[in-house]
Structure formats: structure tokens, C-alpha cells
Amino acid sequence: YSVSFNEPWLGGRKRNNFGINFSHSISRLRRSYFTSDFIGSLKVSSVTVSLGRQVRWPDDYFTVSNYLQYQKYDLYNYGNSLGFSTGAANSFIFNNTIARNSFDSPMYPRTGSAVSLSASFTPPLSLFSNIDYESADNETKYKWLEYHKWNFDAKYYLTLIGDLVLAPRAHFGYIGSYTDKVGVGPFERFQLGGDGLTGQNFL
Length: 203
Fold this sequence. Notes:
Layout: E1 2-7, E2 16-30, E3 38-55, E4 62-76, E5 87-101, E6 112-121, H1 138-141, E7 148-161, E8 164-166, E9 169-176, E10 191-193, E11 196-198
């Protein structure tokens, strides 16, 4: 479930978009496909505070937005695909996004383009920690996640004839770590599949 509040005109004079969101989800593992006997679970909870605004340079189509997010992964007997089966992982994320959108229609665009570049950062806590990451177990190593993530998205709509529209698009993503002794970790990775490069997290 998710609960959110959004104010698109913070201050009443300019398009300052302010938002608060809380979400919680539960994924359960069954012993087999044919039974309802659950043997494990993964709970993901997050709180996000965001602020965005429209800017007039280089033109009126640009927006700049930021958000702060705290996210917690709570695992119980959830197999070993994430490095440990029982425990918790936390992340504190700062994101900055610069975007430009000139679509002629938000629902069924025929002309225009949309381009966005976003960067997400977590604090490099391992640089100030006295934990021996070479001998630490994964639950200790990934108690606080560390990474920097970059996303670039581009869409373009061009009317060819009548209602026939050409819509090429491109998606690029990169995720990296601050130090090799910790690495990126099992969470928040990209997954290939579906209609392209997707995945704000591993789910």
C-alpha cells in the first residue's frame, strides 16, 4: 500500500511541487506453487520527501527535482539470492533529476520530446566505519547500502502520416560503488527484461 500527499503549487505563485510518500509492500515465499504454506517473506518500506520546480533556462520546458528517501528491506527466511536470508538492509538516498518535456499531449503525444538525467547517491558510510568488510557476513556488510546510480531516458515523437507516429526511445543506466571492499550490494540493481532497462530496485 502507499499513501502520498502532493502540493503542485507550494507557495502559491510558482510551480514548486512538494510531495511526501510512504509505501509498504510484502512479498511472501510459498513452500510450493500448489500450497498456501508461506515459509519466508520480504517487507519493503520507504518514506520519501520530494521538491521540484519548473525553471526558465535554457527554456520553459525544463524542471529540476530532488528527493530524500529512507528505505528498509526486512527479510525473513527469504532464500540466499540476496546474500542473506534473514535480516535487514537500509538505504538513505538523495536524488537529483533534470528533465525537459515538450510533449504536445500528456496522454497520446504526437510531437515533442522528453529527456531526463537523474543521479542517486547514498552516504559512503564504509569510508568512516571500522568494520572489517573482508571478514564480515553479508547481513553486516549490507546493513546500510552504498551506491551511486545514474539514469538517462529519452523519448521522441514524430508524426509521419495522419495518426501514424514514430516514437524512438533510449534508456541508459549505470550503478557503481564507492569502494571495492563493499561493492554495490544485492539491492537496487538493474534488471534487463520487458520493454527495456528497468528496475528501481531488485524486485
